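Fold Annotation — chain and its backbone
Next Lines — sequence and tokenised fold

***
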Amino acid sequence: NEDFKRLVAEAHRRGIRVLVDMVLNHASSEHPAFREAQRDTASPYRGWFRWLPAHPGVKNRWGGDNWHRSPVRGDYYYGFFWSGMPDLNFDNPAVREEAKKIARFWLNEMGADGFRLDAIRHLIEEDNTLENVPRTHDVLRDYAAYIRRIAPQAFTIGEVWDSTGAMLAYYPDQLDAHFAFEVSDSIIAAVRTGSAKGLLPPVLRIQSALPAERYAPFLRNHDQTRTVTALGGDTARARVAATLLLTLPGLPFVYYGEELGMTGDKPDERLRTPMHWRRTRAAGFTTGAPWQALQPDSLTANVEAQDNDAASLLNLYRRLIHLRAANPALANGELIELEASNDAVAAFVRRQGDRAVLVVSNLGSRALAGVRLSSADSVLRPGRYVPTTLLGVGNPQQLRVESNGRIRNFVLLPMMRPKSAHIFELERH
């Protein structure tokens, strides 16, 4: 606990806020409360979990078995993810009160700034519906209101691994934000296939429904194949993916090691291998034996190797993060999609007031000449705009916006390199 308090204090001194990963859905099969519940049917903890005297004989819609035989009494308990993680019973008021007590401990005693809440769509099940049921929303509404009452500045973000439509059901009065899984999938798919066709529709849908501070795009998380691995080891594509992530609206999240191009694939333990800090036996993660063997790329995909390399993936992430923080249009501006004459090109404007930034990426594997950009709607005030390069190479042409505010057949660059991304600030003259 003292180590954690020191971590929070040092983070706060540097202007960093610390969120705790809060797992409300389940406990461990080794937790003393669950062990007592297994042994004693009269225990007050018995009702913290769900039990049946015999297996119900049904599997979930994915073909998995959520009911597990207890080795103590031979009855069955419910655990959605696996037998080692029995689900907590949020229909029980005592469980809901315990969840609040835990939140209060981390916020008030340990100094945490909020929570990332795991697997929240599974909190309560109704018959054969295992996710997103109305009573789950009731639990979160009550839980979030409690947090706002005891720590008004705390931030909460939830994992609803589902469609955008399912995620939007968790607004407006539950958690502060949720992860945008469809946006994550659309970025990875667009960069992997070299086609921009499906990239922006998920972004535009969320943008039309929510303020930018209430949803979080990302590339990969702790349950998903890492970006470089998903892209077949192609770090050029990973650079484009990073640029797209950090120029889209929302609150971008970066899973540790993605900024280095760390690799990793299932099983889950191999997605969560030690962070690569240095070129040492345990990569600077520990002076002892790391909990998992390092990835094979630990000698190159590490902070020490990339720190002073201006062209490294790490420094691209740094540059993009600082650029986003310094530019109001990139940080908070509305996204307006542009039409490109080639499907391999993703193009959009981020606009806030009179500030505008143009982002153009060639997702394909060949160079493209004379790509034309147009807008379906009014984008900017009419006039002539001079692009200033913020990221990328090339000689951009001046932009003329028509009297109706539209862009028509604008050739920004005579040639676009394959797997390249460009960011330009637009200044009206």
The two ends are 57 Å apart (CA to CA). The chain has a mean pLDDT of 96. Residues 93-109 form the longest helix (17 residues). The chain is about 30% helix and 20% strand.
